[in-house]
Amino acid sequence: MNLRDFKKDVDYFVGDFIDDCTLFLQIHPDKAPDEVADIMEKAVDLYNDLKDKANVKVEGKKSVYYNSLRMEMVDQIGELYEKLSEIVSSHK
Predict the structure, then answer these.
(1) pTM recorded for the entire structure
(2) Taking Cα atoms as reference points, which of 44, 21, 50 lies closest to residue 34?
(3) Which of the four pLDDT bands, split at 50, 70 and 90, describes residue 34?
(4) Domain extent for 73
(5) What does the DSSP assignment read for the chain?
(6) CA distance linking residue 58 with residue 66, whole number of Å
(7) Nearest to 40 by CA among 24, 21, 12
(8) How many distinct structural domains can be found in the chain?
(9) pLDDT by residue (tens digit) across 54-87?
(10) What sign does the dihedral 50-74-5-69 (CA atoms) show?
(11) Whether the Cβ atoms of residue 7 and residue 51 lie closer than 8 Å to each other
């Protein structure tokens, strides 16, 4: 994995998560807008954090560094999806 691929993955996965949050809010505008907004804010913070980490000068094997960042992204996006899922299931 290289920097360009990692940045594309960050754009795709975080953007997709924010799209899912927006879709939930459009379908259910009266159900937990503040909770979803907080999760969306965490996703934006994750996006900014990952982009900052990606733009650091890397010593050693770059592919190993970007793979570890990608795993961090996947784990954190998974946690955000779990929180969104809890909100969705609690507001049916």
Answers:
(1) 0.89
(2) 21
(3) very high
(4) 3-90
(5) --HHHHHHHHHHHHHHHHHHHHHHHHH-TTS-HHHHHHHHHHHHHHHHHHHHHHTSPPPS-HHHHHHHHHHHHHHHHHHHHHHHHHHHHHT-
(6) 9
(7) 21
(8) 1
(9) 999 888 898 899 999 999 999 999 999 999 999 9
(10) positive
(11) yes
Predicted local distance difference test score (pLDDT) of residue 92: 63
Contact 8, 54 (CB under 8 A): no
Query: Rounded distance, CA 14 to CA 44, Å?
Result: 8
Q: Which two tokens stand for residue 33?
A: 């807008």
* DSSP states along 79-91: HHHHHHHHHHHHT
- CA dist 42 and 89 (Å) reads 20
Number of residues written out for the chain: 92
